[in-house]
């Protein structure tokens, strides 16, 4: 059975959501980053980690999402297709322009040693994040239900998780187009199942 390692109040939420969408059996260990148990399976101490059925540790939330969706042939455009190239472009945009801003803000809030933090950088990060949201809104403004086609794919999971993270970090939520998109995806049963577990 697959085993997901990492607290759901982190990027571990992403593979947990996809695992629920796929209906795959898995176990979950709610462990913080850099704990001894995490270091045992990932030398960097970072989460999430997904242990395959053979016990192979997979790291990085996007890599795990891609592996799961490709393996199961669901929630991703076919590898090698132009649709997949467009999907991957959206994924990298989200990682570069939304996720990276949020992670850098977190590093300068509580991750780095206090003497290494630059709190003033967060104003610039909020500006960059807002510009990323404007681009995201343009992608969605043609009325599409999902970012890369007619069904949920990897970038949708990343986008909604970034929206959750941004809310917790006090970043802007975006316009009505983004709000409607986020709200609709948060109603999915698989998302709600993980959210309930995280809250509990």
UniProtKB/TrEMBL annotation:
Q: Which PANTHER family match?
A: GLUTATHIONE S-TRANSFERASE GSTA, GLUTATHIONE S-TRANSFERASE-RELATED
Q: What is this protein called?
A: Glutathione S-transferase
- Which E.C. number(s) belong to this protein? 2.5.1.18
Ranges for domain GST C-terminal? 80-200
Taking every annotated instance into account, which residue ranges of this chain make up the domain GST N-terminal? Answer: 1-76
The organism is Profundibacterium mesophilum KAUST100406-0324
Keyword annotations from UniProtKB, A to Z: Transferase
Molecular function in Gene Ontology: glutathione transferase activity
InterPro entries, per the entry: Glutathione-S-Trfase_C-like, Glutathione-S-Trfase_C_sf, Glutathione_S-Trfase, Glutathione_S-Trfase_N, GST_C, Thioredoxin-like_sf
Q: Which Pfam families match?
A: GST_C (PF00043), GST_N_2 (PF13409)
Look at the named UniProt entry and state the broad enzyme category this protein falls under: transferase
